[in-house]
Amino acid sequence: MVNKLEILPNEIFLHIFSYLSWDDILISLWSINERINSLICSIFSMNKYGIIFNKPGLSYKKCSSILFPLIFNSSSLCSNIKSMYFDGIYSIPFDFIYEKFFYHNDKQRIYFPNLKSLYITKCLLSQPILQILSTLIKYQLNELLLTFHGDINEIFDHTGDEVSNTSIEKDKERMFQQLLCQIFSDQCQLTSLKLNIKEIINSVDQCLKSHPSLPSKTVSDGLQSYCTTLRHLDIHLNNADFLEDIIERIPNVEQLSVDLKKLQRYWSPTDSELQSLILPNGNWFDKVPKLKCFTLKSCIYNDLEFTYLKWLLNNINHVTKLDIHLYNDDVWRKDQTIWKSIIDANFIRQYCLPDQIINLRDFQFYICIRYQLLISNIGKIKNSFRIHPFFIDHQWTNVECFYQQKGSYQHIFSSTLRKLQFFDALMDHPILVEWLPAHVKIYLRPSIYLFFEQFNKLCPNASCITFISGCSPEYLERLMSLSTLFQTQQLNLNNIQFRNVTKLRLGHMYNRRFPHLENFRDEYKTLAKTYAHIISMCTQLRYLSVSKFEWLLYIIEYAFDDLRKDALSAVQYAEFGITSCNFGYNESVHVGKHLVSVLGTFMPHLKTLCLWRLDDFPWTSIRPDIPSRRYGILILRWQNTSQTSESILQHVRVFEEDLCELVEQLKGLVYLNIYGKTSYKKVELYRLMVQNRFPNSHNDIQTSRFRLWI
Hints:
InterPro entries: F-box_dom
Number of strands: 27
Structural class: alpha/beta
Shape: globular
Low-confidence stretches: 155-164, 211-223, 419-436
Helix content: 25-40%
Distance between the termini: 44 Å
Organism: Rotaria sordida
Domain F-box: 2-40
Protein name: F-box domain-containing protein
Strand order of the largest sheet: 1-2-5-6-7-10-11-12-13-14-16-15
Strand content: 15-25%
Radius of gyration: 28 Å
Number of helices: 25
């Protein structure tokens, strides 16, 4: 007898699969019958599908006992997986998973022979990651996306003293330089690469010039190593040195997108030195003859960098599509005479285009500069493109220009570049908002209610909002009018909702060095109430990030009546900056004792917790109260006593109690990630404690980071 399930056509099954995550598909449907297995394999064989580790809730138990055995015991499934995606937010699963996926008995093993696309975001450098990437780009991958975590320069896999830490840091830098050399050589078969190394502050700019680790390939014009397969390159860099070296190694690139922090070399030459450096290099047509599309995004600070920009544009004057984005936040110095010019058609033609136009068919630009502009000049600027012979001939006359009076920002751009709306009354400091943005960043000001009223219409696809605020008495006094609008119900929350927003970030500073708030002031109630209303407007909130945990306490204590019931109950990922347990005023060091009770009460379904700490990992303080008048002397005495063996053991016990309470209160928690800084003397003790208390888990404990996957 035919099962009723068998009656359904394949199209229905594929439609059902589109609503399920890859792990749900495998756990629920794999091995029902051969037909279902074949359909599952078919969706994994499509590049847009694959194994995706980018969501909270994927537990160590589920992966180690169910998913991995299921995958590795099916050769047909392994052979059909063509893409994988790892998000570094959940990087401890990544560390563990790639060891399972790519290693066997400490030796590399390829379980996925047809893996072609690998996407790794917010990555941390480690030796195994670099080793497996080296193998994959040489033998398997066609497409690689690799971006690094903002904390990468703080984190190293070490547990030893300062000498060994420095040695390990140097080894990682050397290995990463070697990987870069391999990527841009004949030992790489990538066709598409997106690489963001802006976060790498260690010098990699000279590695393509000096690294001897790879053999060279003999070509007619000398000894040189090339990557002949690379067609699409999107790279984010600190400066232009590395770009020039890359051009020498990618002869078949067709699309090149470059995002620079600044348009200058690693060092700043004089005018004469710059001319001697760039003029002999000639045109890049001989180096990248197939280049058709070029995009450049960069800050430009001075006239010298405009000279470099012009040289760069003249080198790629054979492209058919050119996209230029230039920024400058402050114009006042003597060496900024070009920026002080009126940015009109003559400016764009002289400084933002090659001198000789050969094949160019599509030109887009966007310029944002902080400089005074008369409102009456806006019409003249736009009209300058309509009457300029060059722009008329190429039909590039459709240009928009806006001016923000509050911040003195000029915005001028091709109207076809993107759909933008300018909200003159959005805030006291109005901004340009891109049409259909996924992530909206907004400075919180009283007049923002006008944006709230239009939010769902203007940003229907926005899934993440970051609100940036101040804490000065003057700022909070101005914000009272917005709080009053909420309280008097003039802003109707039933009509103003962030319907599609799943991520909300209150504040934008997330690092170990964030300043703690001063003792509570009455003015803070205004911002707490505003935050409470904003949280309540999110109907599908899953991700909450608050730069200072104290604000969540203030919301609960002083604005609880303004917080919608169960507004936080669906949150699965939470991120907080939490104050030091050792340094600061007495109330500040004890903030962490409220952490578990608040999370257990308001976020009972939390799966991932990320904490930023100034120092040690425990969030419950054992420091005694210190009178403010004797703080300087007594804090030094406390710091000395905290390094004794007895004090270290006490910290281990307190941390164990913290972890046990957290896991007990939050039954669904699967991942804890703490950025901090502890003594190397504590690392091994913490590791032993975790292994004893949580035997069925995976951990990674370093002096700068604590990670626990349950």
